[in-house]
Amino acid sequence: MSEWNSMNREIKKNQLRSQIVQNSGNKDESSEEIIKKARSKVKKKRFRISLVVLLVLAAGGIGAFEYFSLYHYTGYGVVWSKELNEGSYEGYLNFGSNLLKYSKDGASYLDSQGKEVWIQSYEMKSPKAVVNGEYAAVADLQGNSIYIFNKAGNVGVATTVLPIVKATVSSQGVVAAVLEESTANYIYFFKQDGSALDVKIKALLGGDSGYPVDISLSPDGTQLMGAYAYLKNGTLNGRVAFHNFAEIGKSVPDRLVGGFDEPYDSSLVAQVHFLDDTYACAFSDNSVSFYSTKNALSPELVKQIPIKEQIKSVFYSRKYVGLIVDNPGGENPYRLDIYRPDGKQVFSKVFQYPYTNADIDGNHVFLYNENSCRVYNMSGRLKFSGTFDFPVTKIRNGRFPNTLIVTGPQNMKEIRLQIGGQYQ
Fold it and tell me: Could you tell me which SUPFAM superfamilies the record lists for this protein (predicted)?
């Protein structure tokens, strides 16, 4: 009996052990499933949170874009003001994200807060500055010197025997200059250190090429675009010509790869400009023309837009070309037309503001005079109109979407545009 009881107890113990092991296995499996489900829930929750955050950011971005694109400011506040060094003053040019100030006795490079990065002294009777990308040049018109700069300062000085009529610079620092002689004009080329290149073009008013009125180098320095005046049947006509100084241009006589006379029959071309290495534009007295040099040996006239009204101003950036023309009749005496490099119109706007200067910086058009300003975006919307109690000679974008850098002969200010009112 005791043995039977002992055996009974042993069997019950084994059954109990078996149940414990089985229950432990079931418990382990349930734990794994619970963990998996928990992880899945966490992932889904994180995804939903991330999606909500992205939607909020997107909505905020769209709202900010709409705000800065559509809002019209009428007032401003001065963020900071900087007094500039005194001296003679000729003008300012955008130089990268900063400004080049030049005068008869020197040039200086000003950063975005009006600090002088460098100063270069010289003496010129009639300085004229040009900028292209990382390089700038200041030429003494009717004089014999050209100072070449990059953002670190003066890198070279070109000296000429003949008087300088025009000068242009590439973004690589190569300079081309029109030099005047009594019987002919010449286009000479200089390296960034000022030394002369073994390249020159002779031009005669009565010759095949014509008299150079204006020139422009492509940013890479391999192409030269020229506006020429020449005689045809006793009448003065305009011409646009392209020269290529890359290796491919050696196969063409005088490196002349394109000439356009017919579009300018009985008209004169006053100004030409390379917008980038592919697109260029020419301004005559009755048209604006857009060219492409995608085919280096055969430049193409992409589009010519006739202008019936009198052209008052032309201005441009790498991305846009602007014209202001008379607008006869009505209460608005002027019309502002903005184009892309391929000649497609961005917008057209009539206005009656008495501007004296016009510029493009980024996606803004600036019209201003000595004490007031108007700013348009590339939708043609008036973003800002206001007056200043200090002299103005240059306006450009500031560090933020609602700020401007306003520069006068002896001062620079950053202003923050506001809904209304103004303070100092």
Answer: YVTN repeat-like/Quinoprotein amine dehydrogenase (SSF50969)
Host domain of residue 183: 90-353
| pLDDT 10s digits, 256-298 | 999 999 999 889 999 999 999 999 999 999 999 999 999 999 9
Whether residue 249 is found in the same domain as residue 297:
yes
113, 169: one domain = yes
pTM score? 0.82
Which is nearest to 415 in space by CA: 102, 172, 400, 228? 400
Q: What angle do CA 51, 53, 55 make, to 5 degrees?
A: 70
CA distance 353 to 356: 10
| Residues 337, 274 share a domain | yes
Q: Find the length of the chain.
A: 424
